[in-house]
Design brief:
The protein is an alpha/beta fold. Helix content is 44%, strand content 15%. The chain has eight helices and seven strands. Strands 1, 2, 3, 4, 5, 6 and 7 form a seven-stranded mixed beta sheet that branches.
Amino acid sequence: MTVLAAAKFNYRARIERAELLAQRHPSAQEMLTFYVDIARMQRECYESLPRLATNETVVPNRANPRSELNPTTLVGPFARFLGVVEIKAPAPLAEHAREWSRCNEAARSQLLAEFWKTGLTNASSTDQLSEFLARAFLQPYAEYFQGALSPPVSGHIACRCPSCSALPLLGVLRPEGDGGKRFLQCSFCLQEWEFRRIFCANCGEDKEQNLPVYVADQFPHVRVECCETCKHFLRTVDLTKDGHAVPPVDDLAAIPLTLWAHQNGYTRIQNNLLGT
């Protein structure tokens, strides 16, 4: 299966899962409906990449996803993306997209180039609306160029994505034998890499008594993995309990788990696209 074919399937799966979860979880319906609009736009961006990437006009060095971005090729698609956000997003984000639409091309290009270079390698920025616009637009490009790389070596234990150095978004437990193997999923390019089961993905704490795990009845396949040492948490989607889950989408629906974690003094290592 080619990288493009795999991604098209993934985007379709994300969209269909979001539509299902929007019906299942009314509290997340508005956010998931908005996400469907974003995912459709991301799919269009992804499908345009084989043509754009032929002459290496987007990223000069495809072996390094964080190599210098040439934003001139992306000015037109980004303008169309901002137009979708203006129409579909909640009011504050829609107005912010409108402000960026009024900016000149140089300013918009700088936003994209700066996020591509360092975005999601540290905790979320204070300008969360601009971060959302750059992250949502550039994510399919990051996924595409990450797909050209060799997969990370087995047993990789770094707490950063081995391809683009972004912070982890999620844990994923995938069935293996009688249990599950733990992976981390990147917050930018969405690559997964194998990771130790008893190990904090933020500070490296490995004492089991300092790493409590919480599960809510409403989301039995989504774990809140906390660390008492650094007071951060990672959400993990357990595919051994629900094989139909699509990790980045099921994560969006689990709004009550984020509220619970914050009320109990934990901070997420990296927020998801919609901050839920």
